[in-house]
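Batch manifest, entry 17 of 40.
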Amino acid sequence: MIRLIARLVLAAAIFSCPVTARAFDVTLLHANDSHSYLDATADKIAPQGASTYASLGGWTRLTSAVAVVRAEQANVILLHAGDAVQGGLYYMKYGGKPEMEFLDRLGFDAFTPGNHEFDRGPAYLARILGYTRVPAVCANLDASAVPALAARVKPYVIIKRGGDRVGVIGLTTPETKLISSPGNVRFSDEVHAATLIVRELEARGVNKIVLLTHVGYDEDKRLAATIPGVDVIVGGHSHTLLGNPDGIEAMGLRPAGAYPTVVKGADGSDVYVVTAWKWGRVLGRLDLTFDDAGRVTKAEGKPALILADSFKRKNDAGQKVEVQGGDRDALLAFIASNPEAAVVPADPAARKFLGPFSEGVEAMRTEVIGEAVLPLPHIRVPGVTDTGESLSRGSLIAPLVCQSMLARLKGTGEPADIALQNAGGVRESVDQGDITVGTAYTLMPFSNTLVLLRLTGAQVRQALETGVDRGEGAFPYVGGARYTADMRQPEGHRVLSIDTLDHQGNWTPLDPVRTYRLVTNSYLASGGDGYAVLKDAASSCDTGFVDAQAFIEYVRQQRMLKPLPTTGVTYIPAK
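Output type: structure tokens
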């Protein structure tokens, strides 16, 4: 209301006398869901349609990218939208120290805690926040039962730039109470909490307001349309990639929307919603111009996909080889012309800082976490392995991966009924003997996260039919369920029976109309390997837990791994 009155007064002044409104320019830089991935991560892109393997992100390159913008722009604000920890080996080894210290080194202006900041409890979060001076903000958090955390997390921060002020309000998903371990910390409704703080800021004369959220892209759009007085939402949680046709899309990636996504706000003004994918792979950038009334008069998105200076493609023999010569020159020229991608060098000081931590992480890869008391061979589709071993019921290691997925979610308020793993997501057999951290990351090298879906029994059946029909890497292995596949039957009708295991240990037939909680990896949840039905789930929650780390925790708990009594698969070949 205060903002509306101010705008009406300004409009009246324009008609009564010639007044030149002072423009205020500010650049918002942002990251989210970096999940302890301090090093670059590998992925496949397709610039100009050519399948290319690249290294993306990494905090040493993120440091360089931020420094370039600060050198060019007068008013820069750097924000982190949560889940700085939990995912990479750095968190397993150091418990958040290097992640928080990097926030400090880069000079973030505000950080909102994500759900994974609470994975080791609120007291632990308060402790790791001691490694950084960055203001932590969350308006819908009540940490009064944990005084150390309450003293550290405030509802908002006012950031001064260029003689003006920008209010940044933090919000964290209330689902944290179900998908993490917040203890006595409570989370209130985001709309109510943010609305109150917007009014407070406007009463203090702050008319440029940013929500820094960890609630997910779809929820961000809802908040943008609901809360009056908000100009920009910088979000995280859903690992959403945003970009534009001549930028991110031209690199062969598939953004979920435009950067920025423009939503009509509750007061009729446009609200600009941005988020920066995951793992520090993208540095979000939104260049804004405000007028005196706090109205955005210009908003230009310039997100940057951060690339290392190394690219590989498969040769005729199917081997990944470095791109060289004219092909490399053409690739680099295309990236240089792309407004949303950049080859970024590592910052020497950041690399020196990270060095000792990296050495510790590499040493950790040899740490023994358990023992395979018998060989755990892997095969994609039940049959005979290349070495002549008969595995008529399929892989012996993939069902254990499914058990590790169920075990990881059992510790949350939303345990899963069924786990689903594609055969291609498990890369090799596990030999008898010691199992190391390195074993787990070699077994599941793609850094997939665990996603909890709500599906009907009919949709579960369709997913299994899809995997059975497609075969090879798509072939489905399950936990908490068992099924029979008869490949002599017509496509789409090969899964003859499906049973699920209830919490009392009883097998019951799959109910086609009942809703089941199914946990799978993020690749399948996004429709990978042809599992399009999973994209139609009634709800989808990316837990952020990495599949390899879930397996590590499971092995540590079990200590001795052996084949399960059943793989969950009865397979009748076509002939």
